[in-house]
Amino acid sequence: MPLIYKICPAALWREAEEKGRFEGAPVDLADGYIHFSTGTQLAETAAKHFAGQDGLLLIAIEDSRLGTTLRYEPSRGGALFPHLYGSLDPKAVRWVMPLPLKSDGSHALPAEI
């Protein structure tokens, strides 16, 4: 089953775990859905939207666990990005790991992505 990924500030994710739901980061709330990336989109997403930001987590979810509230919609250059129209139950998450910064300000993505 394909994994999709969310980059999220650690404090915001910890708050979601306590509440039992993640309703999104400020950009998600403004857009009306939670932004995710596929594995092939992740490096570009990290570079474009999170360059130089520390204290982030990488969250992996099996897309099939999100049901009909997940839609793949055109975004950058027509690529289909996963968007979740609803909140995310932290129990649906497969894994969460730190997304450390490298010395050049880019993020060290896990090799298995």
From TrEMBL:
Pfam families: DUF952 (PF06108). InterPro entries: DUF952. This is DUF952 domain-containing protein. It comes from Bosea spartocytisi.
